Amino acid sequence: MTPQQIQHIGLVIRPGIEAAVALAAQVVDWAHEQGRTVLFESESAELFGSKAARCSSAELVQRCDLIITLGGDGTLLSVARHSDSKAPLFLGVNFGVLGFLTEVRPTELQATLERLLRGDLYIRERAMLLGILEREGKVVFSSQAVNDFVVQKGARSRLIDLDVFLDDEAIMRLRADGMIVATPTGSTAYSLACGGPIADPSLNVMMLTPICPHSLTSRPLVVDSDSVARIVVPHIEDLVFLTADGQVSCELKPGDVIRITRAKHRLRLLSAPTRSYFEILRTKLNWGVPNKNE
């Protein structure tokens, strides 16, 4: 996609951040000056009154060439997992805490948009996952995920048993709080907090990370993303959920079968060429930084 092909710009704003609303107004002015049209995600449009053009997150992906999110990674994830063959570009502006996906600072947005028109930005593609929940042979839930799918017990529930298969081969009976199936992008999210590895986003892999396993030998597993991970819940005594990107979820029933594999479509992120993935790790997580001066 060339800069000239970017005619329709979508805006998504995290509620409760006045600075994000003010910055969105600047984006609208800039877009109109450049002869571009602006479309708001439905809730974000409420901040701009009844005249703001609006649609759902899924429709925004279909109708826009560029989608700018003003918030944190969660704001971007709420729209990005709807990516399909239309494959718009995403530009995340970070008003959150960490911001692995939302690399651009608010003060950098204007310059970033100008570089975009000059074609001076990189497009980084990220793999997504597709998760399908089957119950008694019928699909009852499906979603894409940019970061991860999580099968997890409720807050006050007991440990759960999960039968885990890879391409129909049984690989483990897990007794734990749950299981995370993550993309390389999601390797620095919940999976990392549970002891999972960090994976370069360019790799075609997915991580299976147990959550608080009741075993010394249940370790994170890295597998080819062309594989099909199948998780079966043999029995349930309390609440158990399947969650996509920590945002959409479905309560599980005994005998439910979850199939997770690489999604057909990829997420396309705009990124400044001067900021590498490892620089982001060092900046956000102090990765590879010594604990003392040497």
What proportion strand? 35-45%
Instruction: Output the helix-strand order.
Output: EHEHEHEHEHEEEEEEHEEEEEEH
Instruction: Tell me the helix content.
Output: 10-25%
Rg is: 20 Å
Number of helices: 7
Count of DSSP E strands? 17
Q: Mean of residue pLDDT?
A: 90
- Overall SS class: alpha/beta
CATH topology of the largest domain: Tumour Suppressor Smad4
CATH H-level superfamily title of the largest domain:
Probable inorganic polyphosphate/atp-NAD kinase, domain 2
* CATH structural architecture of the largest domain: Sandwich
Number of domains: 2
End-to-end Cα distance: 47 Å
The level-1 CATH class of the largest domain: Mainly Beta
Low-confidence region ranges: none
Shape: globular
How is the biggest beta sheet arranged? 11 strands, mixed
